[in-house]
Amino acid sequence: MTGTEIFEVSSEQQQDLIQWLAPYIPTCIALYRRIQFGHFEPGARILSSIDFARSPHERKAKDSWIIAYVDRACRPETEVWLAASWEHDTPTDDSKTPCADDLVKAMIKKISQFETPPKASTIVDPEGATDQSSATNGSVLVDRDQFLSHMQNENIVLFGSVHRATFTILKRLGFVDPDSAEVSGIPYRKYIFDITNGMVSRELPSGFEYGKVDPKNYSLVKSRTQIPRQDRTLCKLPSVAIYPAKNPSTTREPVAWGFLGLDASLTTLHVEPAYRGLGLAKSLSLRLFSEDMDIYCQHNPTPTGENNYIQERYAHADVATDNTASQGVCESLGGKWHFEVFWIRVDLLA
Predict the structure, then answer these.
(1) Which residue from 70, 84, 162 is spatially nearest to 114, judged by alpha carbons?
(2) Where does the signal sequence lie (predicted)?
């Protein structure tokens, strides 16, 4: 049976980790991209049941494994991304369940040993959020009570983009916080995009122009979504905004915007109601995929040549199953729905 020891992956071992995960694309794309992106806080850790201190021929690819990126300083945003072998191979194979259960338990135990950093001075309160329908992903939609409960209990951790196979294990083992069971049960469709096929930025309708999201407009962005966001996170993310053509007599505010998340997912995509139906959401998405995806590759370059991996071709988005508008945008971009994921609050002491 596979051992259940969990190891910390050093910065020197991250390239080996990236190469290990590459063949499991697109299933592990959220974790893969999060590690590629970098921008790690001092307390962030990468944990693995694979000991990357061992030589490559000593690592057994046939064994089950689990890998996680953990950053408790991100509270109340996503603190953990993870991927596991049973998600990619045969998630319905009951013969792997005992091993998977042991690995999940070991990972939770390891995460529980990390202290929560001091609370950030700037925390997003979602009380004023107004629009759920335009958000494509990035975190579970929350209400005020759940948000405050999360922040007050250091043993509650937000796991993001959890594959249904692992969500089922976490829920069966009792790790899913029962106080957020209703939210935790909301599935998101994982759309995968092949960005080598026609992902080219396009011209906007007359009277509009592209730009970046100005930090002075972060409050506007946050008011249009119930996804918890902190300014310190938004300023790291690649963004595209659409503005009315320059007019010095008016204060410029964007009429549409979108970001690529910490895991390179299409996130916080929004078009103001008066400007919908003009194809602006698709234009934003194309611009982000064609202009900004390379930032996720620069920290962890992959091998080139005949054996070059194909994983850099892919982008992704998570869309709520009842968000037909965003599903339509993804499908118009050639996105394919591969599997379902969840944002869940995990009780480390369950």
Answers:
(1) 70
(2) none
Domain-wise residue ranges, the chain: 7-190+342-347, 208-338
3-class DSSP assignment, residue 21:
helix
From first to last of the 350 residues of the chain, give the pLDDT tens digit: 445 899 999 999 999 999 899 989 999 999 999 999 999 988 999 999 999 998 887 776 667 899 999 999 888 889 999 999 999 865 555 555 778 999 999 999 999 999 876 654 344 333 332 233 343 443 334 445 555 566 678 889 999 999 999 999 999 999 997 766 555 568 999 999 998 766 788 899 999 999 999 999 999 999 998 777 889 999 999 999 999 987 655 568 999 999 999 999 999 999 999 999 999 999 999 999 999 998 887 655 555 443 344 557 899 999 999 899 899 999 999 999 999 999 999 999 98
Local structure of 233: helix, strand or coil: helix
**Of the candidates 225, 290, 213, the residue with the CA atom closest to the CA atom of residue 259:** 213
* Fold observed for domain 208-338: Aminopeptidase (3.40.630)
| Amino acid present at 152 | Q
Identity of residue 348: L
Terminal-to-terminal C-alpha distance of the chain: 25
CA distance 132 to 125: 15
For 239, the 3-state DSSP assignment is: strand
Name the pTM for this structure: 0.86
